[in-house]
Write a structure and sequence with these properties.
With 157 residues, this protein is of the alpha/beta class. The chain has one domain: 3-Layer(aba) Sandwich (Alpha/beta knot). The chain has five helices and six strands. Helix 1 links the parallel strand 1 and strand 2. It starts with a strand and ends with a helix.
Length: 157
């Protein structure tokens, strides 16, 4: 079964984090949260969105992006990092996901820090949006779509 991880960098909206945690439980994958958060993890809205599944989330927390990179030994394997941004021109369908990959999403209000796109320019992907009427997709919806594409590639290849 798939064992990749979803990573949220400085999430702002507790409901999205709770919903993504629920997806992680459904797929038996880890959720990695990188501080700062725009909420407290004991906030009711996180638990409400995660329902009674939140206690089953395989949660790892890091104080910073650099701590995450070193803690997960990703300096040696940057190819395992997949970042998602509306500014990328490469659709996520072109990504080659693996069991050891990290699906990294930024804050709902500010996205990923600029230094990440400088450090990993070829690791960025986007979800297609064909209407000019919206700026972005809901974080929980985007993370779930990418997670299931990862499962499809990894488990059904």
């Amino acid at each position: 079964m798939a064992k990749f991880s979803i990573v949220l960098v400085a999430p702002d909206i507790p409901g999205n984090t709770g919903s993504i945690g629920r997806t992680c439980v459904a797929l038996d994958i880890r959720l990695i949260l990188i501080k700062p958060y725009g909420f407290s993890l004991d906030q009711k809205s996180v638990r409400r969105a995660g329902l009674d599944y939140w206690k089953h989330v395989q949660l790892t927390e890091y104080d910073s992006f650099d701590q995450f990179i070193s803690g997960e030994s990703l300096n040696e394997h940057p190819e395992n990092l997949f970042f998602f941004s509306r500014f990328s021109e490469t659709p996520y369908f072109n990504a080659k996901f693996t069991n050891s990959c990290y699906l990294v999403f930024g804050s709902e209000t500010s996205g990923l820090p600029d230094h990440i796109s400088t450090d990993y320019p070829s690791n960025f992907f986007s979800l297609p949006m064909f209407s000019s009427k919206i700026r972005s997709l809901n974080l929980s919806n985007a993370a779930t779509a990418v997670a299931y594409e990862s499962v499809r590639q990894i488990d059904f290849v």
